[in-house]
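Quick one, tokens below. Sequence please?
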């Protein structure tokens, strides 16, 4: 009797482990994943080397919004950028000020230094199904202005939710 009880306990543990592995796989594949911030293009919002959890599910049921910090998947690497312009909108930067559809856009997430290092750009109209992204550290960011171009919706694989490492920086991304 004791032998059977021991065997049943191992079977139950085995089932629990298999279920946990399957759930972890499903969560990582369809709901949440992690990414490492490489470089200083999102400084001060995100720092080089920070690890973020991003939500993959949010864009399966909705669309990206202006201000979202997103993970962009490209063949050579993934990028972390902020959505600035939506499909069909016109973007222009003049005198260090960002205009969306000829209206001044308040960029509270930028430092004064970053605001003052945003050169003139545009006006340019974003094609349908595409997005315009920029890094928060405008003077060094590779983004829609200078290398990434417009971002296709299917290249946006998730929305950054919060920093989980280093532990001293655990916070929701802005």
């Amino acid at each position: 009797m004791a032998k059977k009880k021991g065997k049943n306990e191992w079977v139950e543990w085995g089932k629990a482990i298999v279920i946990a592995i399957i759930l972890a796989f499903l969560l990582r594949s369809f709901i949440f994943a992690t990414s490492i911030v490489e470089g200083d293009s999102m400084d001060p919002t995100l720092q080089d080397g920070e690890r973020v959890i991003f939500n993959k599910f949010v864009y399966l049921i909705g669309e990206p919004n202006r201000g979202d910090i997103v993970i962009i998947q490209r063949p050579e690497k993934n990028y972390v950028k902020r959505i600035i312009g939506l499909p069909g909108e016109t973007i222009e930067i003049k005198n260090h000020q960002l205009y969306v559809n000829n209206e001044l856009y308040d960029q509270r997430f930028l430092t004064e230094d970053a605001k003052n290092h945003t050169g003139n750009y545009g006006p340019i109209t974003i094609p349908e199904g595409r997005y315009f992204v920029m890094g928060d550290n405008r003077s060094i960011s590779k983004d829609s202005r200078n290398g990434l171009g417009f971002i296709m919706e299917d290249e946006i694989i998730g929305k950054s939710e919060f920093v989980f490492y280093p532990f001293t920086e655990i916070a929701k991304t802005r």
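The two ends are 59 Å apart (CA to CA). The domain at 34-164 is CATH 2.10.109.10 (Umud Fragment, subunit A).
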